Backbone:
């Protein structure tokens, strides 16, 4: 398989075909909780892109240079990754606060929330144990592949949460059945969007 | 007697009143993903209940020694240890189920239910109450998974298969596979939530009518019905 084509497949798979929110149901809490306004959704999407890329790269390094050589990966990866993510989030928050106050104001409040965003842990876990891509070879991601994969996942998250917020802003003022007001309606939108994303299934044999 | 009633309250509130999925809306991701089959729901429910009960008990028993500033990392380490136990035991004893549940088992760590109960309940309450709370919440979670799994598997495949035996069958019926796929999860969950919301609105309206409330209320209840 051509190298560049493989990167493309990994990216596309992460972005659309196995979209983290609508196809794999990871990180639904921010989808339902944060997506009431377009602006906050954009802030959340940016913070997730930032933290997720760093967390996956750090987890990849920890897995390949510490956990795997010591043969403790199988039973220590969960605590190690979650600690990496939690400390990275704290660290990022401090750095941004010091270096760029406007950026901090834009995404500061979302950063602590990301610690418990399952998407970050899922991306970190899958960048060392890629399980879902039907690429014929059983192989491990190299660091650049891991980064491409993570950026794809994060952009997929961003696209969906922003589309979602746009629809919800419109529906806010529409007359809907009383029983469906609020969260149930959000799930209905998710069902329809998910149906649309299923159209990408089996694209390019993924 | 007093102790007994409160314990029962702590235990039973997770079923409906404070059901983690329907009311508190935490831990949604895993429940939607694994509820495509009743069998998956059972295993996921057991795994979550196990982690919830033990992390609640441990955190409640060491709560007076945890410094306030670093409580979240401590909670996460406690939770991660129990999740690792579940992860490894399930891989060893139920490899087929483990393969189906996949990434969801490690993701129990960041399942908001568990952290929410640790932070919101176990950190402030006694060991026994935390145990009851964990058990009740776990059972509430499992019940929703089972209901969703039942609806989705029955409609999506036309029958319920558990441990390789067919339990219920709808007979010859062209099953819409959409229900075991992704949109079906959102659809089923949204409808269940709407049902619950409707039930509560009617109950509230009925209560207000009973109280002899002012004019607008009966009309509101009719509108809901």
Residues:
């Amino acid at each position: 398989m051509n190298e560049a084509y493989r990167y493309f497949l990994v990216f596309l798979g992460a972005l659309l075909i196995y979209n983290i929110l609508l196809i794999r149901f990871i990180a639904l809490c921010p989808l339902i909780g944060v997506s009431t306004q377009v602006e906050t959704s954009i802030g959340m999407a940016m913070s997730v892109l930032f933290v997720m890329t760093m967390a996956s790269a750090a987890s990849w390094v920890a897995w390949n240079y510490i956990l795997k050589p010591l043969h403790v990966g199988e039973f220590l990866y969960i605590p190690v990754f979650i600690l990496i993510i939690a400390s990275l989030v704290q660290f990022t928050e401090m750095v941004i606060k010091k270096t760029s106050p406007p950026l901090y104001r834009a995404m500061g409040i979302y950063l602590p929330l990301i610690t418990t965003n399952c998407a970050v842990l899922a991306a970190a876990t899958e960048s060392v144990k890629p399980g879902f891509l039907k690429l014929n070879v059983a192989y491990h991601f190299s660091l650049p592949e891991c980064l491409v994969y993570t950026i794809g996942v994060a952009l997929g998250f961003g696209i969906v949460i922003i589309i979602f917020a746009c629809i919800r802003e419109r529906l806010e003022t529409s007359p809907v059945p009383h029983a469906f007001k609020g969260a149930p309606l959000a799930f209905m939108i998710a069902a329809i969007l998910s149906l649309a994303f299923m159209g990408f299934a089996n694209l390019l044999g993924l | 007697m007093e102790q007994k009633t409160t314990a029962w309250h702590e235990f039973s509130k997770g079923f409906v009143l404070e059901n983690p999925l329907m009311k508190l809306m935490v831990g949604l991701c895993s429940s939607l993903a694994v509820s495509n089959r009743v069998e998956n729901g059972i295993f996921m429910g057991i795994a979550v209940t196990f982690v919830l009960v033990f992390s609640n008990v441990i955190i409640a028993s060491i709560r007076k020694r945890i410094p306030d500033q670093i409580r979240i990392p401590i909670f996460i380490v406690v939770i991660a240890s129990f999740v690792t136990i579940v992860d490894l035991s399930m891989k060893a004893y139920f490899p087929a189920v483990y393969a189906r549940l996949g990434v969801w088992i490690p993701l129990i760590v960041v399942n908001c239910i568990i952290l929410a109960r640790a932070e919101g309940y176990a950190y402030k309450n006694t060991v026994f109450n935390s145990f009851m709370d964990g058990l009740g919440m776990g059972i509430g979670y499992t019940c929703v998974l089972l209901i969703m799994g039942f609806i989705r598997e029955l409609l999506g495949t036309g029958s319920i298969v558990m441990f390789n035996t067919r339990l219920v069958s709808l007979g010859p019926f062209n099953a819409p596979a959409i229900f075991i796929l992704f949109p079906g999860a959102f659809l089923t969950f949204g409808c269940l939530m709407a049902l619950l919301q409707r039930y509560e609105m009617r109950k509230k309206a009925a209560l207000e009518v009973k109280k002899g409330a002012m004019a607008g209320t009966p009309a509101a209840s009719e509108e809901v019905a």
Remarks:
- Residues 15 and 143 of chain B are 8 Å apart (CA to CA).
- Residues 127-157 of chain B form the longest helix (31 residues).
